[in-house]
Design goal:
By secondary structure, the chain is of the alpha/beta class. Helices cover about 40% and strands about 15% of the residues. The protein has 5 domains: about 160 residues, P-loop containing nucleotide triphosphate hydrolases (Rossmann fold); about 100 residues, Recoverin, domain 1; about 100 residues, Recoverin, domain 1; about 170 residues, 3-Layer(aba) Sandwich (Rossmann fold), CATH 3.40.50; about 30 residues.
């Protein structure tokens, strides 16, 4: 799907107001008939101009007002319905201009308390004088910032009649006020912020400059035509002549880019700047359009969301662009630079507890991609929003929904006895002091030897990392389920996952009972694969105060034997590979993979895929003994 820019308004409604006799009705009739009407009614009927005869290809309604035929309530209603208002005065009657300032413009403000409507000040009957009132109007424009433009015309000679209504259209479709400050003759702060973001997105090599290739990409993206070499040289010549630091090493600087947009506006070419802004998702208030940052993405019940190959490529490219020192990690300043095109970063400092980092606590590429996998799975709406902020739409010339992959329903995975997904959630459940937090932490810090207070997140947390299952990289999200009281019931959100790890302390006789009861109550009748982990296996194993010992319990419920685990073991990653394998092949749980039961393993292997090979590999992975 090709990404479209933010859509223009579907229609424009122009209202003409002003004192009697200034020529409001004559202007409308002259526009329609292209000749001056000597016989003019008190009020023209509402006129609709089809889209195909307007410069902006937008249907336009033109509405007249007559004090002789309409009440003040009707006038108020028309003002509130208008998209733009032309306040008409006569250049031969100074009182009509004074009335525009003292009556008509204040009236518009009183009627529109909840929104702003652009105004065009129109001086009619210019054919009757040999002077201009434009200088006097400039001071009025400073007082009434809603005035977008002013123009003088003649309904009798048709001078500037069509231009008057074109200006009115432009005031709605390409307003000046959000972009330009007439007092300072500079871009507004909101416009500067938007253009800075656009500059950063177009700066593909992140060197702070736009080279010829980047400028051509920008031109092609915004206007769908290449930038001719001579035009490019002319642009650079204009910048070199008019401002300092507009060009550096033959490339356009941010200052130069801003100057060009300001120049377009000063020359009445607002539509050029607006075309750029809308292509990058901005609406008339210079806010990111909801339709642009939140495109429709259907996620059926039972399906999940993860990054597509294109999404992964885009995010990896961003990381490499901003890893200026090429150390494989983003320093705080590099991270700030990457997310400077967003309103705020998509995550805070919690990533230090969540994903792999280097020894300085800086996020690595692996950790960065894991963080994105977590966001995409748990909050795909936010992932779409940030893909838009970061510029996916321009990089790939398509909607950011293409950065997201919607997986098939889980019930189909169960039916086919394997999953094609790449991201799985694992809930780690166990009693207090069972060591589940330590287990989760070692997933992202394999060298961890002892858990200290500063390593423990302030609240219930997740850890995310990748493992390989049969040569394919899978991302596993471990969620440490904090339960304050063993009597507390688990919520559906605490239960529903792709695989559950029930952890007990093998050296504590009262530890196993808790997870045994949890299994019987919540998982015995579910299709969620469960792995029981005997933590602290480096300590002396004790008999559990429960009617069944762990091995007997697992035999009874056709679970794999308790998997020994300890922070002091050299090889610890195998436990996470087992969890990932069980999530990827959920049917394994129903076979009761008992140690040494070759027939059961044969069945499991057949269910996975390639019978003779896969069956052997699953057996080897899932029944790895503690060496």
């Amino acid at each position: 799907m090709v990404q479209r820019s933010v859509a223009l308004r579907r229609n424009v409604r122009i209202l003409l107001i002003g004192d009697r006799g200034v020529g409001k009705t004559s202007l409308i009739l002259s526009l329609v008939s292209e000749e001056y009407a000597e016989d003019v009614p008190c009020k023209a009927e509402e006129i609709t101009i089809p889209a195909d005869v307007t410069p902006e290809q937008v249907p336009t309604n033109i509405v007249d007002y007559s004090a002789a035929e309409q009440t003040e309530d009707q006038l108020t209603d028309e003002i509130q319905k208008a998209h733009v208002i032309c306040v008409v005065y006569s250049v031969v009657d100074e009182d009509t201009l004074d009335r525009a300032v003292t009556y008509w413009l204040p009236l518009i403000r009183r009627c529109l308390t909840d929104h702003r409507c652009p105004v065009v000040l129109v001086g009619n009957k210019i054919d009757l004088v040999d002077y201009s009132t434009i200088e006097a109007v400039y001071s009025i424009m400073k007082e009434f910032t809603e005035i977008e433009s002013c123009i003088e015309c003649s309904a009798k000679t048709l001078q500037n009649v069509s231009e008057t209504f074109y200006y009115a259209q432009k005031a709605v479709l390409h307003p000046t006020t959000p972009l330009y400050n007439y007092d300072t003759h500079e871009l507004t702060e909101e416009c500067k912020i938007a253009l800075q973001r656009i500059f950063k997105i177009c700066d593909l090599d992140n060197d702070g400059l736009l080279n010829d290739m980047e400028l051509n990409t920008f031109q092609q993206w915004c206007f769908n035509i290449p930038l001719q070499p001579q035009v490019l040289e002319d642009v650079k010549a204009v910048l070199s002549k008019n401002i300092q630091d507009g060009i550096c090493s033959g490339c356009v600087t941010l200052k130069g880019f801003m100057y060009l947009q300001c120049l377009f506006i000063q020359r009445g070419r607002n539509e050029t700047t607006w075309a750029v802004l809308r292509k990058f998702g901005y609406d008339n208030e210079l806010q990111m359009s909801k339709e642009y940052i939140y495109p429709l993405l259907k996620v059926p019940v039972g399906c999940t969301t993860e990054l597509s190959h294109k999404g992964q490529e885009f995010l990896t490219l961003l990381f490499l662009q901003h890893d200026r020192d090429r150390d494989g990690a983003l320093s705080p300043s590099e991270m700030e630079s990457l997310f400077s095109r967003c309103l705020m970063p998509p995550w805070g400092d919690e990533y230090k507890y969540t994903v792999p980092t280097n020894e300085k606590g800086w996020i690595t590429l692996q950790g960065y991609m894991c963080q994105w996998a977590l966001l995409t799975l748990t909050n795909v709406r936010k992932a779409l929003e940030y893909m838009a902020y970061l510029g996916y739409n321009m990089y790939n010339n398509e909607c950011q929904t293409n950065a997201i992959l919607v997986t098939r329903e889980k019930k189909l995975d169960l039916a086919k006895k394997q999953s094609s997904r790449n991201v799985y959630s694992c809930h780690v459940i166990g009693p207090k002091s069972s060591g589940k937090t330590t287990l989760c932490r070692t997933f992202i810090d394999p060298k961890l030897e002892k858990l200290t207070n500063e390593m423990v997140p302030p609240s219930s947390h997740v850890t995310v990392n990748t493992v390989h299952v049969y040569g394919q990289e899978k991302t596993i999200i471990l969620r440490d389920i904090n339960i304050l009281n063993v009597q507390d019931a688990l919520t559906p959100a605490q239960i529903q996952c792709d695989v559950a790890a029930l952890v007990y302390d093998a050296s504590n006789p009262k530890s196993f009972e808790y997870i045994a009861r949890i299994y019987i109550k919540y998982f015995a009748d579910s299709k969620i694969p469960v792995l029981i982990i005997a933590n602290k296996s480096d300590l002396s194993e004790v008999k559990q105060d429960y009617l069944l010992q762990p091995i007997s319990f697992c035999n009874k419920y056709k679970l794999m034997p308790p998997q020994p685990y300890s922070i002091s073991r050299t090889v610890r990653r195998e436990i996470f590979v087992k969890l990932a394998t069980m999530a990827a092949f959920p049917h394994i749980n129903q076979f009761g993979l008992l140690q040494g039961d070759s027939m059961v393993w044969w069945k499991a292997g057949l269910g996975i895929a390639v019978a003779t090979v896969a069956g052997f590999v699953v057996m080897r992975v899932l029944n790895t003994e503690k060496r």
